[in-house]
Amino acid sequence: MIYKSDPASIEVFLTDTSNLKTGRTPGVYFPETAEETAELLRSATEGGKRFTIAGNGTGTTGGRIPEGDYVISMQKLDAIGEPMHLSENQATLTVQAGALLENVQRMVEQAGWFYPPDPTEGLCFIGSTIANNSSGARTFRYGPTREHILRILVALPEGDLLDIPRGKYLADENDLFRIELPLAGTLSFLRPQYRMPETSKHNAGYFSKAGMDLIDLFIGSEGTLGIILEADLKLIPFPRHLFSCLVYFNTLDDLFSFTARAKSAEGGVTPRVLEFFDGNSLDFLRKEYPDIPREAAGAVFFEQETTPESEESDLELWLELMESSGALVDLTWIALDREEQRRLTAFRHALPLLVNEWLNRQEESKISTDMAVPDRSFRELFDFYDSSCRKNSFTFIIFGHIGNSHVHLNILPRNREEFLRAKSLYREFVEKAIALGGTLSAEHGIGKLKSPYLAAMYGESGIREMVRIKKCFDPNLVLNIGNLIPESYLAT
């Protein structure tokens, strides 16, 4: 077990990409085994310690930033096993929580397998992606991380190590779980008694479903119920072939019509990714890509898995859909080989970099949304975003995962007055998304930044349900306090 308390060593653990500046800690532990992690938790009650779990600092909600508690870093637990064949179409891979996502994906691809979850940041720890039920562009076809986890090993707050293979611990017909543990004894509790939002992506609060699996309670719980130490990932065969396209449109009405038809597989198309860029996003990108047509009101990026034998016919299906949807077909960027696909991927990833360059010249940070709504309500939320920002004369962009009715609005304040108005408007966006049956967070989680808004989504009774589950596993409140559940609710 490594422990560091010198300022130079702990400074890196006081930040992530959320821009929270309140981090402080007495020191950082670096366990090298599952047992060492469990032992830290066993000693917490006697020593009066609390712990914040640290991923690799890529989160946007301040989840890993300690507010006076000790830090447990996952970075030494980074082992990656070898794929084990389960069948012709499925394999599994055992990884430790501190393994980098990009290393996992590279390794399984070299072995001919595919791990679909694709958060934008490949330098995140795999354990963090599980704790946050991370998603990304490919979630449209493959679903979020939850759907690709077969087993987890968890260190519980009282020091037990619990192995949770999918299918072993299920809620009974009365919604009750019952678990026997060596140290904590018998844990008996009802699953959370609230309704989940009607969205295809959701990462805000504890998962709940009739007959649910215990593994799904821990996935997305943001480290508040236990520390995920190890996981078995579900792998599928690597797609034989792929092409991708960037399609421009003169009007948003045409663009949204095209997207709806593509999502319904009209004409036989089967996208695995559907991403959106509004006109303001294209204006930012035009600085690096001057060939973007001036008349474009927006663009859609899509990927299609195919085979060498069916590529031509699949392309024809897409071209027919573009032409009948009013797309600027002659200006479409089609990437058929790996090198051209890398260039198109670079285009997609250039937007946040250009936005950050713009923000570096300003005094204020951006205000951004991570909300999703049911498909039927997407246009209403989008129009509310757009009209509200135009009414306030904000600089803003809207982009993201239109396939899941989940786009990111970034408001880019030019001064303090605009920042305060944008922050006030954010609460209106939260209320609108929830009123439409949506979620406060589709993929980035709650952490510390968004916990004040969680009651708006679940009501006070819903937060009390989360507190009930939290205190069942963590009666002494030693783990990730301040994350997800507003701390004031834990005091009662």
Task: Give the arrangement of secondary structure elements.
Elements: E1 2-4, H1 7-10, E2 28-30, H2 34-42, H3 44-47, E3 51-54, E4 70-73, E5 84-87, E6 90-96, H4 101-110, E7 113-114, H5 126-131, H6 139-142, E8 149-155, E9 161-165, E10 176-181, E11 185-190, H7 214-218, E12 227-237, E13 241-249, H8 252-263, E14 271-278, H9 279-285, E15 298-306, H10 311-324, E16 333-335, H11 338-360, E17 367-368, H12 378-391, E18 396-401, E19 406-411, H13 416-435, H14 454-473, H15 487-490
Parallel strand pairs: 2-4, 3-4
Antiparallel strand pairs: 1-2, 5-6, 6-12, 7-12, 8-9, 8-12, 10-11, 13-15, 13-16, 14-15, 14-18, 17-19, 18-19
Helix pairs in contact: 12-13
Explain this structure to me?
Helices cover 32% and strands 21% of the residues. The strands form 4 sheets. It has a 7-stranded antiparallel β-sheet with strand order 16-13-15-14-18-19-17, with helices on both faces. Strands 5, 6, 7, 8, 9 and 12 form a 6-stranded antiparallel β-sheet that branches. A 4-stranded mixed β-sheet has the order 1-2-4-3, with no helix packed on it. It has helices at 7-10, 34-42, 44-47, 101-110, 126-131, 139-142, 214-218, 252-263, 279-285, 311-324, 338-360, 378-391, 416-435, 454-473, 487-490, and strands spanning 2-4, 28-30, 51-54, 70-73, 84-87, 90-96, 113-114, 149-155, 161-165, 176-181, 185-190, 227-237, 241-249, 271-278, 298-306, 333-335, 367-368, 396-401, 406-411. The protein is an alpha+beta fold and 492 residues long. The protein has 4 domains: 2-73, Uridine Diphospho-n-acetylenolpyruvylglucosamine Reductase, domain 2 (2-Layer Sandwich), CATH 3.30.43; 84-238 and 471-490, Uridine Diphospho-n-acetylenolpyruvylglucosamine Reductase, domain 3 (2-Layer Sandwich); 239-350, Alpha-Beta Plaits, CATH 3.30.70.2190; 362-445, Alpha-Beta Plaits. A hairpin with a 4-residue loop joins strand 18 and strand 19 (406-411). Helix 12 packs antiparallel against helix 13 (416-435). The chain is built from 15 helices and 19 strands. The mean pLDDT is 93.
